Amino acid sequence: MRAAVLHEIGQDKLEVLDDVEAVGFGPGKVKIRVRATGLCHSDVSAMNGVLPQPAPFIPGHEGAGEIIEVGDGVGNLTVGQRVLVCWLPACGACPACKRGQTQLCLAGFMNAGTPNFKRPGGDVFGFAGTGTFTEEVVVDAGCAVPIPDDVPFDIAALIGCGVTTGLGAAINTADVKAGSSVAVIGCGGVGISAIQGARLKGAAQIVAVDPVASRREAALTFGATEAVSPDELADAKQRVTAGEGFDYVFEVVGKSVTARTAYETTRRGGTLVVVGAGAMDDNLQLNMFELFFDEKRILPSMYGGGDVLQSYERAIALWRAGRIDLESLITHRVPLAEINEALDQMRTGSALRTCIEL
Q: What is the model's pTM?
């Protein structure tokens, strides 16, 4: 079968090969025919080594398709069923799951160290234990979440990561208050979803911050009340908040420099939500006096900061009701053979989300 493979960490191009086989099928597993997958910035971060991932590997974790094979012991899924791929399934038994913090379950991460593909030359890993830049993938049954028939594969794929992450950051983690002021730094697919979440929660002012003009323009159509470049943020803070700072600031880039800017843009007593996934050696510096004196809440948001299955259902309900726009998030579509074009679109910022169609 065909799949896009990164041979070594640090390479900036994927090679589309037709000699890849999905392996590991057995009890408790399912095989999925991938129909659509989104390109998420985390895929690029894994390629360049910001996020730890053994290589060679197949990127992709934001996918949807249909089940083509069901292993023994899987009672809730059937062949032909439409599913989205959950890259962080909850085991239901660990301390985090028992506390109701299923987004912190580590069971799914354990799969990242087990190859689920192979080529004539050896084993190949799937990113985050999945790897959806491929025609077929074998995953634990818990990674396959049924979707209703009226949800297209491309929409379901977005819900599988970017939409859930961004919406959840605003709704679950921050619990944005009606009438508040919000700034979102980084307006790709996740940042736009955070903007939509803040709008749903009733934020009065939502300032989108991004260096790419097309993304700023797009943010205005998704609910931002204004959009500025990073060098205009200080002026926006002065105009919108009289210099006090925003009630909520979402950092959706994953770099210490933007997190520091987000901290300085948050008002005293306000909330900074860290959504972007950054590198382990990129340290955010705060002095102990400001940490104490400013009383700003710093809230990391992992996968939307809530139960992912409930978050999926909520996103589908909001989409059906027309309360969130998911179709317009997909600004580009490419076949798997042109996956490197999708990577270029992400790196230049020309795409909110590129859908790879298989």
A: 0.95
